[in-house]
Amino acid sequence: xxxxxxxxxxxxxxxxxxxxxxxxxxxxxxxxxxxxxxxxxxxxxxxxxxxxxxxxxxxxxxxxxxxxxxxxxxxxxxxxxxxxxxxxxxxxxxxxxxxxxxxxxxxxxxxxxxxxxxxxxxxxxxxxxxxxxxxxxxxxxxxxxxxxxxxxxxxxxxxxxxxxxxxxxxxxxxxxxxxxxxxxxxxxxxxxxxxxxxxxxxxxxxxxxxxxxxxxxxxxxxxxxxxxxxxxxxxxxxxxxxxxxxxxxxxxxxxxxxxxxxxxxxxxxxxxxxxxxxxxxxxxxxxxxxxxxxxxx
Length: 297
Prior knowledge:
Number of domains: 1
Structural class: alpha/beta
Largest sheet: 5 strands, mixed
Mean pLDDT: 86
Radius of gyration: 20 Å
Low-confidence stretches: 119-140
Order of helices and strands: HHHEHHEHHEEEHEEHH
Shape: globular
Distance between the termini: 26 Å
Strand content: 5-15%
Strand order of the largest sheet: 2-1-5-6-7
Number of helices: 10
Helix content: 25-40%
């Protein structure tokens, strides 16, 4: 049933594009995702056409500026605007640590190719096979050290006064919906002797499926960051059964560049050994918001 979302997306996206030309790609995708979750077990008989998927994947989105056209693998989003000095100090230290990390890597050491993020293969039409020319182009990028690891997005620098309000104190889930691409996958298996959650939620499990996201890694600078000098690292999908898409934990600014580098290029996964050690307060905010899409998205 997980691939039903992809089929629905291919079928309904042209309709939403025609009816809502003023909105961006992710706004339309989220409305179609809502349609999917209204009846996730239905059978959708739609011919899969990779050309259609490629067409809408190239549609513009107002938040693409934060996650496109750059070497970075992660993006730090400012969501608290109460202390400019603390934020600037945080960013300065982040970039200093990032530069020290990159400078410490010997230029003659081959760079591993970036690893694929959370799998949503069942939710995305297969890409066409690479040609020999494509393979040659991709091989040229391997072994090249990135010039930056984490991008910083500060909405307060935008000329539109209302722009910062869009980002102010957003949940992890809203950040994923704004900056990543949605998908649906089978939910993680229930552990032996365990029970399914009493109240199904699409971020954990509904109809044995789970809402997931793919794209650039998201770090969130919030009000706590002003004093604890940490940022929330947002998970694009649940880990073990019972954890949720959008779960997060806090990482110190001094650790962020290395964590991002290792996740992107070394395939490191952070799962706390299968234990649920994520921030429950942030999870609750996400779960409460799961069935509601902000109008600003």
